[in-house]
């Protein structure tokens, strides 16, 4: 038997190397002050025009006669269907008893969101891609190295080759830094998850057009700008194994896991797919499926046309929220250790009932008609926070391949005992960023908005040092 | 702001106290040599008779006209429905491409399986209950302190009070040692999970009839006997936070989590509930629903009659496997550290595609008709292992409230390189028991058979010291 074949279960040096990259704001490849020019150059190379079109002008997409579901004739990509969500009251759950219908995107295939990392001058750099997505307000943002579904990268569907995919799958791939299935938007997707990967390259890596190497410190600076780091990048970055600097927390890890278990148990939720044309409260017009009172989101269609003749255009449906969102963590220091207030959220599309979201995750327009006492907890605290309380702020886009103009103002807001007491209300808990980093190694704990906010927290923490 | 309100994230003293209890084989309350008499006395107090009956004699249960599903008129308990499971081949998954129908139990309500612990003479003791379940071959076995659904313990359905439930739910409950939602049998249940809890009592605890305090060392001795520690006890025991004595492993934790993610990604599985009377390959008779070739399991009905007039009888359906099962871990030492070979299993009822099972988990009769090369991997290695290779063996029952005569021979079998190479075949991985203990803090990693085997491994490890 060979000897010394064991490894340590935890590789502490990875955390140290990530910390060094986060502390390095001068990259070996591209200076941050030159990044804007580089992205503008990429934007000139890829001119795209995205236009709203009526559903009738969608190519290959149609409403299925028997269900009203919006489907592609190939059976690929995704479908827009209906969802019926019910939440029980006593004795099966403690509610709130709820019952609603909504359109939902069903895309069962798991994709890879992967960032390749490699040391230059002894510092880890991250390979990021300037990528166009039709729903982004500025179209081109920084995506992970790879963003691909399995049928994409196994090439069975005659797609273009997926660049760098060989570093993430197959026998010759690199050293795994993180690899976890994470949920996507539970209010818009039915049980969708993607494989979030960070892989360290072994050996030389060619640098292709549209790609650039950045340190984590540079990426964190860019995370302070609006609409630069796309959602897929943010969720992958949130999965980085940051070192745990503080071992103290209000709740022990056992208590935190128990609280999550309790939240999952007390909510008894059923979600059943139904035909889209049987969804009450929503109406289908020529160019949009929308809620009768104009709330939540619309299903719309766009055409994408490329200025570059080498790339052909396409048409597709997108979900468009009715207004900008606000996504925020309230934060407080306890015994000098920063904590954030997480919210155990039920979203109809979650696989496992409840995931942890930020303190606030709302489209304020959906609640503007309500009296103050019926508005979501902590929303007004966040909306009213003065600049002296704001520790982080930037506007980010949700996944631009599925969502149109889905902008969220992402905030970290310092709270005091009057805003948010030590004893969190039911459904909320104070946790440390280190505890979030432990949870995000596993799927179905942090929703995609909480993962965006964790990436922003990590970016803000470095900025404050 | 109050100071010193933080806790350490991990409480190392709990692991030490569990180790002390495991090392203590003399209990403060009941000696192990007297345990058999105590259980026999309980058995005399509760005489039950369980008889097979035709479906027509079920009271309150009937086959729904529109679906053929077996349901209770109250809408409570559980239903027997049909399940259609498909697994894709390329490009969505790498298979095996599969497509089958089967009956399945749907019981959406989450139950509590909870063991109360308390120190006597400085040693943790576990409060176990002698409980009758109609499917157990010997009827009475040791269950956790509490085994109850939410609608049971919220008493909304006029059930008898659930003893000791106040230690597990509500504001006055004890200190949480473990609390995690775990899956049940994915081949027999549709997405069923139970809350596995270990809670330390604060203050005095009355000792009621049918209950006894045992040290973990005593329980581990009883785990070496056949049909004593019931399935619910075994799964809760597997969730105990044992200390991690060894920090080395063949795979780092990051690699292990990545392997699980990869297994979940490469299997593209859909499971849809269908009407029971539309399930091909299964036939319904007067007294059983069975597979046309006599494989897998039967759905049958029983009546339970109590000798004690204070308790009324009842009737219910049960699932009965066609033969005894074999559940086994192959084990090898690498660099002196014991590892076991886990198998990433697809079971139709899993919430999240794949969970880790033991090396072998089969009803050998289902495969007896196959030539050797088509029989499940490692099954023959386990069946042929001589006594010198067997590190643990006992026959245990699966959940006797749902399964009739569902016996599994549970084995830990020492393997060599010829049996099981260092480089595990696809779908298998070598992991340490300490890594399993880390995984089982979270749901959906270890299936119920792997959790039984982890409890047995921990029992065997103490026995060998």
Automatic annotation (TrEMBL), chains A, B:
Entry binding sites for dTDP-4-dehydro-6-deoxy-alpha-D-glucose 2: 187, 282, 345, 361-363, 366-367
Pfam families (alphabetical): Hexose_dehydrat (PF03559)
Domain dTDP-4-dehydro-6-deoxy-alpha-D-glucopyranose 2,3-dehydratase: 33-240, 254-457
Alphabetized GO MF terms: lyase activity
Annotated residues for binding of dTDP-4-dehydro-6-deoxy-alpha-D-glucose 1: 61, 149-153, 232, 399-402
Name this polypeptide is given: NDP-hexose 2,3-dehydratase family protein
Lineage: Bacteria, Bacillati, Actinomycetota, Actinomycetes, Kitasatosporales
């Amino acid at each position: 038997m060979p000897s010394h074949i064991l490894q340590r279960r935890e590789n502490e040096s990875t955390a140290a190397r990530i910390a060094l990259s986060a502390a390095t704001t001068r990259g070996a490849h591209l200076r941050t002050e030159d990044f804007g020019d580089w992205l503008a150059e990429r934007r000139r190379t890829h001119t795209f025009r995205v236009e709203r079109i009526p559903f009738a002008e969608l190519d290959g997409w149609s409403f299925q006669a028997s269900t009203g579901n919006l489907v592609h004739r190939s059976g690929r990509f995704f479908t827009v269907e209906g969802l019926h969500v019910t939440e029980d009251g006593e004795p099966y759950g403690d509610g709130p008893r709820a019952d609603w219908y909504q359109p939902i995107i069903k895309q069962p295939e798991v994709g890879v969101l992967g960032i390749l990392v490699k040391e230059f001058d002894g510092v880890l750099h991250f390979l990021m891609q300037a990528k166009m997505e039709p729903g982004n307000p500025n179209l081109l943002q920084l995506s992970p190295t790879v963003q691909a579904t399995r049928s994409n990268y196994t090439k069975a569907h005659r797609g273009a080759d997926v660049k760098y995919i060989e570093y993430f799958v197959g026998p010759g791939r690199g050293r795994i830094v993180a690899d976890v299935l994470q949920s996507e938007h539970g209010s818009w997707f039915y049980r969708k998850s993607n494989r979030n990967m960070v892989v360290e390259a072994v050996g030389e890596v060619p640098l292709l057009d549209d790609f650039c190497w950045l340190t984590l410190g540079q990426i964190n600076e860019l995370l302070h700008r609006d609409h630069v780091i796309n959602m897929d990048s943010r969720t992958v970055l949130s999965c980085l194994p940051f070192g745990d600097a503080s071992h103290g927390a209000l709740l022990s890890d056992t208590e935190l896991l128990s609280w999550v278990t309790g939240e999952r148990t007390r909510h008894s939720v059923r979600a059943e797919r139904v035909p889209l044309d049987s969804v009450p409260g929503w109406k289908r017009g020529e160019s949009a499926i929308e809620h009768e009172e104009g709330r939540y989101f619309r299903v719309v269609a766009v055409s994408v046309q490329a200025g570059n003749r080498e790339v052909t255009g396409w048409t597709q449906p997108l979900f468009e929220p009715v207004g900008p969102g606000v996504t925020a963590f309230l934060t407080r220091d306890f015994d000098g250790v920063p904590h954030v207030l997480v919210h155990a959220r039920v979203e109809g599309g979650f696989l496992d009932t409840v995931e942890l979201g930020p303190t606030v995750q709302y489209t304020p327009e959906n609640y503007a008609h309500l009296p103050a006492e019926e508005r979501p907890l902590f929303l007004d605290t966040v909306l009213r926070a003065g600049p002296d309380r704001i520790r982080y702020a930037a506007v980010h886009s949700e996944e631009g391949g599925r969502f149109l103009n889905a902008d969220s103002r992402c905030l970290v807001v310092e709270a005091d005992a009057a805003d948010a007491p030590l004893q969190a209300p039911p459904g909320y808990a104070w946790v440390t960023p280190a505890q979030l980093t432990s949870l995000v190694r596993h799927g179905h704990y942090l929703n995609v908005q909480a993962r965006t906010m964790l990436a922003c927290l990590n970016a803000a923490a470095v900025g404050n040092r």
